[in-house]
Design a protein that fits this description.
Blueprint (H helix, E strand, L loop, with lengths): L9 H26 L16 H7 L3 H13 L4 H9 L6 H22 L10 H32 L9 H8 L17
Helix pairs in contact: 1-4, 3-6, 4-5, 4-6, 5-6
Length: 191
């Protein structure tokens, strides 16, 4: 991944660094929450049938069903915003960004589910994978396209801290005087 481009100003680098720091903090929190051993008297069997757990949750009281499904949707939802933020790109296809973000969210969710197989008290659930991935997709769709459009508008208007992103800085740098080329002193060759 190309983290630093020649047109990146300090604001863009700080924006990416903040995204990476928040992403790392969130992943550490999710890892602690989902991979810690639980001291329980018994556990349910692993759910490998898609939507079986969601159907069972919907059979509960409406408040309990909403809580359980909401937890699954919200656990990895911040990745839908933090992954593109850590990438720091403003000019990218919305569909490509969504596909990359959802694929990364699904892989992270799958890694968590696979890691849970060795943790006492934690149970593998394919519906968690589905809900986590849906949460990443929803968060991305609700926040990222509008945020990028707003930041691009700010870039064109010349306002804001991120206004130097893109072509504006590149043209400024290319118009700067070049000066004379560096010279290298000659060094004799030893026999």
């Amino acid at each position: 991944m190309d983290v630093r481009h020649s047109s990146d100003g300090p604001a863009v680098i700080r924006f990416r660094a903040a995204g990476l720091a928040l992403l790392l903090a969130h992943l550490l929190f999710v890892g602690w929450l989902t991979l810690r051993p639980l001291d329980v008297p018994w556990t349910t069997a692993a759910n490998l049938r898609p939507f079986a757990g969601i159907r069972a949750d919907l059979a509960l009281a409406p408040a309990e069903a909403a809580r359980r499904i909401g937890e699954g949707l919200l656990l990895l939802a911040p990745l839908g915003i933090l992954l593109p933020m850590a990438g720091g790109r403003l000019r990218v296809s919305p569909w490509a960004s969504l596909a990359r973000t959802v694929a990364a969210g699904a892989l992270i969710s799958m890694a968590i589910e696979l890691a849970q197989t060795g943790v006492p008290g934690q149970v593998v659930d394919v519906d968690s994978l589905l809900l986590n991935t849906a949460g990443v997709a929803l968060a991305h769709l609700l926040v990222v396209p509008l945020s990028r459009a707003r930041l691009r508008r700010g870039n064109r208007a010349g306002a804001g801290d991120l206004s130097r992103i893109g072509n504006g800085l590149r043209t400024f740098r290319s118009e700067a005087p070049q000066g004379s080329p560096p010279t290298i002193t000659r060094v004799g060759v030893a026999p």
